[in-house]
Amino acid sequence: MKKTTQFLLMAVVLLCSTVMMAQSTISGTVLEAGSNVPLPGANVIEKGTSNGVTTDFDGNFSFKTLSSSGEIVISYIGYNSKTISFSGDTTLDNIQLESSQFGLEEIQIIASVAVDRKTPVAVSTVKAADIELKLGTQEFPEILKSTPGVYATKAGGGYGDGRINLRGFDSENVAVMINGIPVNDMENGRVFWSNWAGLGDVTSTMQVQRGLGASKLAVPSIGGTINIITKTTDVEEGGNILATVANDGYLKYGLTYSTGLMDNGFAATVSAAKTTGDGYVDGTEFTGVSYFVNISKEINENHKLAFSAFGSKQRHGQRQNRQLIETYRNSERGRKFNADWGYKNGQVTYQEDNFYNKPQISLNHYWTLSEKTSINSSAYVSFGSGGGGGTRGVNKFTFNADGSSDYRTGLFGPLDFDKISDENEALGANGSETILRASRNDHNWYGLLSTLKTDLSDDLVLLAGLDYRSYTGIHFQEVTDLLGGQYFLDDNDENNPNNAAQVGDMINYNNDGKVGWLGFFGQLEYDVNENFNTFVALAVSNTSYQRIDYFNYLDSDPLQETDKYNFLGYSIKGGANYRIDGNHNVFANLGYFEKAADFDSVFLNFSNDNINADAENQKITSYELGYGFRGEKLTANVNLYRTTWNDRTETASFQQPDGTRAAANILGVNAIHQGIELDFVYRATDKLSVTGMASLGDWRWDSDVLGVDIFDEEQNLLDTVDIYISDLHVADAAQTTFALGANYKLAPETRFIIDYNYYADIYADYDPSDRGTEGAPDAWKMPDYGLFDIALSHGFKFGSFDATLTGRMNNVFDTEYISDAQDGSGSTADTALVYFGYGRTFSIGAKLNF
Q1: Which residues lie across from 384 on neighbouring strands?
Q2: Do 517 and 632 fall within a single domain?
Q3: Closest by alpha carbon to 670, among 730, 615, 624?
Q4: Where does a domain end: 62, 97, 132?
Q5: For residue 261, which of 232, 224, 218 has the smallest C-alpha distance?
Q6: Most CB atoms within 10 A, among 407, 463, 528, 624?
Q7: How many alpha carbons lie under 13 Å from residue 553 in its C-beta half-sphere?
Q8: How confident is the model at residue 605, as a pLDDT?
Q9: Last residue of one domain, picked from the residues 230, 248, 272
Q10: Are 419 and 469 in a shared domain?
Q11: Do 63 and 112 belong to one domain?
């Protein structure tokens, strides 16, 4: 018995020793090829087993294998997987994963993508997988709502009508770039997201660079830069089929196919999707068709060409007119109430709608001159066509406080367009007194963006280039529906004063706005060592404005076409990042730039004879301090910022007693935006990660503006006015936001997420020039609110397909809240005009990958 026991003990010891000897420790670092950016969260699995780990925030990993030799498989979404053999304990050092997108590295250079723990700016990045999981039926900007400093809403609630504010600045002062190409309107800086409603399907990454940002262009990024990188083309052949259904008749289906990179260096990816629905808000039915094409050709090892075209042709009903809170309460439809639609001949007809198609087409050339030097260029065009619907003539679209109206069906009911049509028809040869029209904003936009990147030494990199743009905005109104009448009489065209306009004819105004832009930029990046990086960047640009008015001036009048007026802008910024050790880094940046005044501040009162040729540049100073922590389980960032915005473009127009117009170009409307931001990710286990952020802003107008001159159309000084805004809050965005989320991996291919977002200190929007009385009150402070969202994604095999099912629910508890407001008299809740946000919504989507 004793010998038997000794034998068994020896066997156990030998077995344990064998098992221990069979194990190996494998460690290494996973990086993005080309940029050497760490890839956190990459999967490292021992082939043929479920044994493995994911990389930490610096791309590092270490784990014990089950056998002494074999292979490990390293994979990361958006990159080609790599299989590596091992034998015994192995340190693999830097493992480079190639992007599965052909030409993506070059696009990232053009687009000025910031690198974590190197580029000294506050940045948040959202990957394609998270967009696919969370977006659903939300507006595209809403995917960023858990980002510090961001306030994103659906605005009126129509398809693509969402808006976004960054650190208290609206889209006119936030640079939005797609593949490095600016898309802000060249005349007013606005971004209309309905033009890009299909971006969610083709975005590879979306990066928010708050404050100065990493962009080398002289773009108007006062609040920051939203940098969208679309897919290029897939290296490997494949594609997917998708379909999504959701509340209120939402239906979306689409297809993507990629040839992969073929032996002849050719690759192509095409994608298309159609989206339809009734809209959550009444009278906001929509149809959208999005499309994406990328064709790439690797000519030789030094040259690559890539052609891309994408856009979204859409039409949707809108809720343009905000209402009193009482109106929503009294209407049967509550927060879904919309007064801007009705019925004509039994068909839904819109008082307000939007239709647009804005394809963006580019040809990119990637030229590797040597191991140290490359030139990446993008020539692009954009042809926008469309506009927004509305009315003209006698206003029959309002209603009384109790909801009654002669032209509505029931209290607070839809419009009765048939009655309006009957009245117009009865007028006979007198023509229509009320019609539907469209305000068109077509445009032709051409541009060239080219960036030279050269390594002057092992530590010093120079980036330089040019940014050229030529833009013509074509603005006019046209008749879209005579509503039963024979014509509409319009006398606004000096060249045709008694215009009996038919459907398709121009009315009211017809003018072109021409904007030219030529910019040069340069940046030096100096890596003192692997722990210290610094940069300085300079940019200069000339903006030219010209206006041609075909209605207010005779064709023979020299004033019909103005001279060109040039405005010089420039920027200088710099920053440094220091990695204290493997866990801690600090950074700082500082910048000053001057931005040309807006188009409308040059041509006051929309005329060619009231020109403000000496419009002042807007002057912006910004600085920021940041701290980052990268640990095995926790990553966190803290940022302090302060931005001063002086001589903000502000004009005011006044009706004189004799009917003529007077205008004031208001200087000294200055704002200070400052605050602190915190965001973190905590990987509690391999299955559970927790995210969070807090953003505390203090955004106020700096001082009163006294003695503003008012001039008439002949530039005669008429009077002066005062504006009392000192210490009033900057409005229209939440100055305090919080977010907390959890992402739990229920199984290897199953994820459940929950997000909570809280918004506070939101002031109703108002025009600073309206505060003309000393002691003017702050704007109405809207109620705080918080929203819960959840999503569940499950991957599985469906025959030969890799399939994914995704379910989402937004505003889980059906919270009633006000998302947007316009301040009213007395700055109270009773007088503010508001939009209510959406209630509970859901979507279920399926994707088959092949």
Answers
A1: 443
A2: yes
A3: 730
A4: 97
A5: 232
A6: 624
A7: 17
A8: 82
A9: 230
A10: yes
A11: no
C-alpha dihedral (517, 520, 526, 532), degrees to nearest 10? -20
| 438 vs 22, residue with greater confidence | 438
pLDDT at residue 9 tops 80: no
φ, ψ of residue 424 in degrees (nearest 5): -65, -40
Whole-angstrom distance, CA of residue 731 vs CA of residue 779 = 7
Structure tokens at 619: 């002057």
Q: What is the mean pLDDT of residues 480-495?
A: 96
Q: Based on the number of CB atoms within 10 Å of its own CB, is 745 exposed (0-12), middle (13-18) or buried (19 or more)? A: middle
What's the CATH code of the domain at 394?
A: 2.40.170.20
- Token pair in block for residue 805: 């099912």
- Taking the whole predicted model, whether its pTM rises above 0.85 is answered as yes
Provide the domain count of the chain.
3
* Cβ–Cβ under 8 Å, residues 618 and 670: no
Same domain? For 237 and 218 the reply is: no
- For residues 696 and 676, the answer to whether their CB atoms sit within 8 Å is yes
Q: What is the pLDDT of residues 654-666, one digit of tens each?
A: 666 776 777 777 8
The closest alpha carbon to 180, from 595, 467, 515, 570, belongs to: 467
- Same domain? 214 vs 239: no
- 427 close to 485: Cβ distance less than 8 angstroms: yes
The closest alpha carbon to 741, from 675, 684, 815, belongs to 684
DSSP line for 90-147: EEEEEEEEPBSEETHHHHHHHTT---TTTS-SEEEEEEHHHHHHH-TTS-GGGGGTTS
User: In this structure, are residues 250 and 811 in contact, taking their beta carbons and an 8 Å threshold?
Assistant: no
Looking at the predicted structure, is the pLDDT value of residue 646 above 80?
Answer: yes
Give the pLDDT confidence of 291-312 residue by residue, as tens digits.
Answer: 999 999 989 889 999 999 999 9
**Helices vs. strands in the chain: H and E counts, helices first:** 7, 52
Coil, helix or strand at residue 796: strand
Backbone angles phi, psi at 365, to 5 degrees: -125, 120
Task: Return d(Cα 201, Cα 198) in angstroms, integer.
Answer: 6
Distances (CA, A) of 503 to 432, 437, 487, 506: 12, 9, 8, 9
Distance CA 215, CA 787 (A): 33
Q: What angle do CA 390, 505, 341 make, to 5 degrees?
A: 20
Same domain, 272 and 379: yes
Q: Which helix (H) or strand (E) holds 181?
A: strand 181-182
Same domain, 280 and 211: no
CATH code assigned at 12? 2.60.40.10
> Same domain for 206 and 255?
no
**Is residue 797 packed enough to be buried (19+ CB in 10 Å), middle (13-18) or exposed (0-12)?**
exposed
Which residues span the domain enclosing 65? 2-97
pLDDT at 180: 86
Element (H, E) at 808: strand 801-810
- Please give the Cα distance from 311 to 293 (Å, whole number): 10
Q: Between the CA of residue 31 and those of 61, 568, 757, 792, 800, what are the distances in Å?
A: 12, 42, 32, 29, 31
Q: β-pairing, 25-32 with 90-97?
A: parallel
pLDDT score of 649: 78
Cα torsion 343, 345, 348, 349: sign: negative
- pLDDT reading at 809 higher than 50: yes
Residue 21 has pLDDT above 50, yes or no: no
pLDDT recorded at residue 362: 95
pLDDT tens digits for range 99-148:
666 666 677 767 777 777 678 888 898 888 888 889 989 999 999 999 99
CB atoms within 10 A of CB 363: 15
CB 286 within 8 A of CB 159: yes
Residue 147 has, within 13 A of its CA and on its CB side, a CA count of 25
Distance CA 224, CA 211 (A): 4
